[in-house]
Amino acid sequence: LVGRQMPHFIVRKSRRILQDRVSEQRGGSCIIKRYCEKRFVPKYLATIGIDYGVTKVQVRDREIKVNIFDMAGHPFFYEVRNEFYKDTQGVILVYDVGQKESFDALDAWLAEMKQELGPHGNMENIVFVVCANKIDCSKHRSVDESEGRLWAESRGFLYFETSAQTGEGINEMFQTFYSAIIDLCDNGGKRPPSSMGVGFTKEQADAIRRIRNSKDSWDMLGVKPGATRDEVNKAYRKLAVLLHPDKCVAPGSEDAFKAVVNARTALLKNIK
Ligand SMILES: Nc1nc2c(ncn2[C@@H]2O[C@H](COP(=O)(O)OP(=O)(O)OP(=O)(O)O)[C@@H](O)[C@H]2O)c(=O)[nH]1
Ligand SMILES: [Mg+2]
C-alpha cells in the first residue's frame, strides 16, 4: 500500500515506468521534504500510492500534531489514494508553473475529492491552498501568477508561489495554511468571514478566464462571427462594466479589460 512498505524491486520498477509522465511531477513531495527536512532532491522519486508522515509544529501559541498524506499524482494510484480523502482538514494542491497541464488538472483533482467525500462530504469545511510551484524555473513559465491566483481566490482558496528547490514561499505557505486550519477549528468548522470575501465575484472570475482562453475577437466578446455593430457594442459594454479596473479587483482584470477594448476596436474596423 504505502511506498515504503513495498518490496524494493517493485518500487524501482514502478518509478522507472512513471519517470516520463512530466506533467504529473508537480513537486508535491519535494515541498513536503523542503519543509520537514529543509533539503531538496533534484532526482525524481515518484510517490508510489501514498506516503504518510507525522510532524509537530508550533502555530501561534499552540503546538499541533500534523498528519501529512502525500498522494501520488499518477491516475494509476487512484484506488490507493481514494481512501484518504475522508476526515481531511486541509489540502495542498500543487501545480508546476512550467506545465500548463498540471494547472488544468486542478479541476479534476477537486472533482476526485468531491466524489470520494460523497454527497454528505462538505468541501466548505476544508482549507485549500494552491501552490504554484517551481517558480525558480521562470524562463519556462507557462501559467502566470494572475491566472493561478484567480483560479484559487475565486474559490476561496489560499494561493502561494513556491519553489521547493530554493525554499521560496514554503514556510510562509505552511504557516498560513496551519493558521487557517486552526481558525477553522476555532470557528466550529466554518470558514471565518474574512477568508470568504475575496473582493470579486464568480461572474468576474469566469469572464476573465473565458477571455484568456478565447480563440479570436468574436469569441472574446462572446458574440457569433458576423455579429452586427450593435451586438458587438452591447457585448463590449457588458464586459467593460463587469471588468473595469475601477470596479474589479480580480487578478488579471486589467489585462482582460484591455483585451476586450482591443477586440472591440478590431471587430468594428471590419464591420460596415
Ligand atoms: N526546479 C524545480 N524542480 C522541482 C521543484 N519541486 C520539485 N522539483 C522536481 O520535480 C520533480 C518531481 O518532484 P516530486 O516532488 O517528486 O513531484 P510529485 O508531485 O510528488 O510527483 P508524484 O509523486 O509522481 O505525484 C523532481 O525531479 C523534483 O526534483 C522546484 O521547486 N523547482
Ligand atoms: Mg510525490
Automatic annotation (TrEMBL):
Molecular-function GO term, any one: GTPase activity
Compartments, as annotated in UniProt: Nucleus
Gene3D superfamilies to which the protein is assigned, alphabetical: DnaJ domain, P-loop containing nucleotide triphosphate hydrolases
Keywords: GTP-binding, Nucleotide-binding, Nucleus
Subcellular location, principal: nucleus
PROSITE patterns: DNAJ_2 (PS50076), RAB (PS51419), RAS (PS51421)
Assigned GO CC terms: nucleus
Signal peptide (UniProt feature, chain positions): none
Ranges where the J domain occurs: 216-272
Parts of the chain that traverse the membrane: none
Family: Belongs to the small GTPase superfamily. Rab family.
Protein name: DnaJ heat shock protein family (Hsp40) member C27
Lineage: Eukaryota, Metazoa, Chordata, Craniata, Vertebrata
